[in-house]
């Protein structure tokens, strides 16, 4: 046992068991997404790529997620505190079964494989109160897997409500509209993988893709750890 573990013992965020943030028992309760679907029509699609007929002007070109956002994962994610954030998010990425990463590694085979990983940014006030951006931690993990760099070209200029608190799609759309801006002209002609922790309605990712593409980005796909 390491000294660090003695000083700051790890307790499972799912069940309280000593030794890990996600104990082996709770790891078994993580539920993997078995079928990737098109973000727009919800029908099956290889690697979650948006069907040619479903593509939108300035839309998201594909989405892959690893886990369903089930009760266990909700509990784990909601109890992540500032001091533990980096460790817990890394552990959540590390417990992913290797073969479940294949579909993400497959992105390297696409003809737009020279992409950049762009985490969904937090508004500065949110970043200050929370102390970390979980999307950035997740992006760093996948940056190693995909051997592609993390960029910070997007800024969250509008402080938005939690999308989950809003009842209908129209409110969610209005909430997110104009939420982001690009910080540099360098996005022009580049391809991106947007990274976030959880996708629920998709309106955050759609707005971010719209912002990048309006600034000249070429292809924009998305990657989230969980899907609601
Ligand atoms: Zn547990
Ligand atoms: Zn479709």
Automatic annotation (TrEMBL):
Residue ranges occupied by any Phosphoribosyltransferase domain in the UniProt entry: 173-226
InterPro entries hit by this protein: ComF/GntX_DNA_util-trans, DZR_2, PRTase-like, PRTase_dom
Record domain Double zinc ribbon: where: 5-44
Pfam families per UniProt: DZR_2, Pribosyltran
Top-rank taxon, per record: Bacteria
SUPFAM superfamilies per the UniProt record, alphabetical: PRTase-like
Family as reported in the entry's similarity comment: Belongs to the ComF/GntX family.
Protein name, entry field: Phosphoribosyltransferase domain-containing protein
